[in-house]
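User: Fold this, then the next.

Assistant: Folding the first:
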Amino acid sequence: SAGLQIQGVVYDTDPASPYRYGGPYNPLPVPYTTYSPLLTNISLCRAAATTTLQRLRRTASRRLQVDMVPHPGLVLGDLVSVTGQGLTGVSCVIEELTLPYSPETQTIYVRVPHG
């Protein structure tokens, strides 16, 4: 109400992250701005900044297509164990999936975590 701008800042300090502050692929911090009338205090702004960083890190990770026997119990966000493509039993998050109407091959897309 006083016209002051509030902001939240977060730096990536994970050594395995491609967005690590001061790392080889991010020598300078890159600002991402978001405006929302719902961000009314510093703690909300910091939470929004942390969420933005998590989203950026997720999109920088490797994405795999998995063709498998249909499984109607899988939903977006589920963790699945992936073996293949140089991975052995790695927990990955389902980001996209299709479920055919007939017993064909189901295709899911998963993200491999960093580290």
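Now the next one, as you asked:
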Amino acid sequence: MNIRNNRFFKTTYILGSALSIASAMLIVVYLYVKISDIYPENDRSDIYILENCNQRDSIASGTYGSRAHIGLAISDRLLEAIRPIATEVSIERIGWDTFEVEPDDGSIPFGVVGRMVDDAYFRIFHFELIAGRLYDSVDVESGRPVAVISDLLARRLYGSVEAAIGRELSMNYETYTVCGVVREPSFLMQQSFGQVFVPNTAYGYSPSDLDWLKGEAVGNLKLRVRVSDAEDGRKMTEAVGEVLRAYSAQRVMNEDWLLGSTLTLDVLPITSQSLGMPADFDWGEVFRRYGFMILILLIVPALNLSGMIAGNMETRLPEMGVRKSFGARRCRLFRSVLAENFRLTAIGGIIGLAVAALFVWAWRDWMFFLDDSIMANAPDSVSVIITSDMLFAPVVFIIAFLITFLLNFLAAMIPVWMSLRNPIVESLSESK
């Protein structure tokens, strides 16, 4: 059989396959980036985020609530309960969304994404150290004004990565000494992305020095916790719940004017947080939420292609009859026609994958951030980097192959099989 005989059929079949696979692959890439292990978040399933502390107090005159990050009133209790279970716990102090860097050459200051984190942060996330060193616990405990910056920022400020080590960095009217340079991750890695990292005790005041903050349950701290497995994650979550319940009970007993207090805290693995899912990550929920979309993107074009194949097979019934008369068995003809359609689908699949990759790269700023405020609040120095391990991971290719095969099988099997069931005489009569 020569697939070049019907150019219209071939072109339409390839374009239909390409459109379907490109659409499905956009969802696959989106999910892959959201939940897979990608630098520097290489162990997402074992990393939990503790944030969004919500306190509601009931008093005689009504109910009052406050919501922010974790405060000092419970942070020490949480750390005491978590550390025996976790392998690493990192404390981040939340301050400004954007840090303002003042270049040495006197050029206009510009904003960067900065994080005030301890040394454990670099053990939870696997940053690639390019030059210098990461600051350690001694730097954090002493509040030493040192900074780890990204390679892109180092080149912009100092010309090269090596030239950045030991240089002074003026940021938010404070001066830091650059001690290390790491490879900048993609902005898509929201829990780890940063262009400047400084000790959480180095900038301005230290939260532990402010007595008036020590009685507050809500504050400006965020915890990241690494556990060894899902069972330890469950134990850690239960330990956090016990701390919150004990704090609420204490508030009722110790303050006569307080009728009741409820304290809640979001405890989410990165995978659940990225997709806005409940704390217990469930693959079934992922498939229910996105599988239907992928199925529709496959089924609708498959039905259209199936109709095209049925029409094409009608025109080829005489050819089938001649081949049957010379001894060709139905199963052999079936495999031959399916192989032909699979070649067309494979061509469409390659085109579809290329279109999907181009679309992801061109529209990355909004594709992964349906909430436009995330990109709107990002400084101008930030760009969404699409790395090769996001687009060309083995799992993505495997899924692409399965999608291609499924599309071909659904579109071609039924009409081809029905056409080949015609008797030889009936097939030959179609040529008259």
